[in-house]
Amino acid sequence: MIENLLHRNDSKILLIVLDGLGGLPVKDGKTELEIANTPNLDNLAKVSALGMHIPVDYGITPGSGPGHLGLFGYDPLKYQIGRGILEALGLGLEVRHTDIAIRGNYATVEYVNDRPIVKDRRAGRIPTEENRRITKKLQESLREIDGVQVIIAPGMEHRVAIVLRFPEELPEGSDEINDTDPQEVGKEPLKPVGRNPNAERVARVVEKFVEKVSQLLKEEPKANYLLLRGFAQKPRIPTMEERFGVKPCCIAVYPMYKGLASLVGMDIIKFEGNTIQGEINTLKKVWSDYDFFFVHIKKTDSYGEDGNWEGKVSVIEDFDRHLPQFLELKPDVLAITGDHSTPSKLKGHSWHPVPLLINSPYVLGGTSERFTERECLKGELGILPAQKIMNLLLANALRLKKFGA
Ligand code: ZN
Question: Per residue in 153-202, pLDDT tens?
């Protein structure tokens, strides 16, 4: 519906995502946001619209993929991004509509009567350095199969991402292929089988790929086989420009977030370094070129996952020190939130609602003293689904016309 109400203007919308922002009490009954000393955020919170958002659904713990899609205004259940695509994006590979992306595991097999039997599904979790060496060797000897380009990127330990790039666009369903990982030791890897004719064609290329890889790895002591999972195509997602009439760009350090942003049509701004200051300098440079800016800050989530609440507090405080520079740009609408909660207490993502702040000249404000979980609950936005945030950002930017007469 929103497509029919769009009204373009010169307003600028800035969305800052502190990954895994929300938390639970970790010390003296206080959350990381409550412990953090955040004078700038406090001042902003007093004059902003506050609330909590639910990334996917009640009780659902989202990955960062669905978490971000929701923030970008997309239904994460309707637009599901396959694991292979996320893995490839995370390792910095580009994905196209001609591609099948796959997650791979180096594994150890033993040949019994010439048939591979899985002995270790993770090849003893070989060191990442070892992975890089083996992957380089593979890539150098295996560049294409029957006109299909093969691209392999090393991940951590035994993990790799593979992109098979076909000469032409692949029809939908071409990725409907079973995992080859038998999930158990003592079993033979499964043959890749397509569940429809298009997928069957891809499966035949995959079969040759597996065969060639196992020949090339035969002499390796541990990583002498490659198990494949999560076959996936690039999802067909309308761009943010098509859906919301904005010209968006992304400033992020980690490849997966840049990849996610590119899936919804954001321009990815390249920059050096990995600091918030570096992101701000980059933002300033492109401020006149776009009207929607997504800035991603990762470390809140990383420390949450480590159970390091002091670390998470320090990133929140670091962000607070930089907040005045974001404000100096005078965005018409500023939103600060997370893509999901990552409470240090749980050492992982969680289902908890995520604090949300929206600042514009058209908010009520005056409900809360700080930007914390409890203070956000007092705010005017209440608890809302993440995918509705985009509506609010557009409305606050006066980019939505009246509905009906
Ligand atoms: Zn995340």
Answer: 999 899 999 999 999 999 999 999 999 999 999 999 999 999 999 999 99
CA of 7 to the centre of ligand 1 (A): 31
Separation CA 145–CA 166 (nearest Å): 10
Using the mean position of ligand 1's atoms as its centre, give its distance from the Cα of residue 340 in Å. Answer: 6
250 Cα–ligand 1 center, Å: 15
pLDDT band at 272 (very low <50, low <70, confident <90, very high): confident
pLDDT at 13 (0 to 100): 98
What is the distance between the alpha carbons of residues 45 and 372, in angstroms, rounded to a whole number?
Answer: 9
Stretch 301-313: mean pLDDT:
96
Find the 373 Cα to ligand 1 centroid distance in Å: 17
Question: To which CATH superfamily is domain 8-79+237-396 assigned?
Answer: Alkaline Phosphatase, subunit A (3.40.720.10)
Residue ranges of the domains in the chain?
Answer: 8-79+237-396, 86-232
CA of 320 to the centre of ligand 1 (A): 19
With a CB cutoff of 8 Å and minimum separation 6, the contacts of 300 are 18, 19, 20, 21, 32, 312, 315, 316, 319, 338, 342
Name the pLDDT band for 22 (thresholds 50, 70, 90): very high
Query: Which residues, in sequence order, are bridge partners of residue 386?
Result: none
Owner of token pair 């955020």: 41
Q: What does the pLDDT read at residue 92? A: 86
